[in-house]
Design a protein that fits this description.
Blueprint lengths: L1 H35 L2 H7 E8 L5 E2 L1 H10 L4 E15 L2 E13 L5 E15 L2 E11 L4
Parallel strand pairs: 1-6
Antiparallel strand pairs: 1-2, 3-4, 4-5, 5-6
Length: about 140
Amino acid sequence: MFTRILLILTFAAGLALADEKAVEAAERAWAAGVIGKNYPVLEKVLADDLIYSHSNGVVDDKRSYIDALKTGKAEYYQINYDSIRVKMLDAGTAMAFCRAYFQTRAADGGKQEMVLALLHVFRKKGGDWQLVGHQSARMPAK
């Protein structure tokens, strides 16, 4: 009986680790998608009911976010992660806590650099992890 329980726990831990890695891959796919303007990737990784709250307080949904990228209203030049930590909430929901260096298009058309703390909420749909919530905060300059 003990062996069976241990085997089940080991199997469950392996599944959780696989999901954590899949969530991290979805996180990185989002970053690569916005930098590379890869709209098919963004259509897949962003949930239809996405709520995307920017560090400046602007809130987008999936359509307005992708449209801003397509029109050049929003542009990402670099996203370099310092850390990504995934926390599984249940079998179909996860949070990613990230810290990353961003270089984006500023309101005046120039480039702006910032370090952001990100809270991303992912939901599993089919076999894919999709970003359903984004909240970012600017980190103070050192």
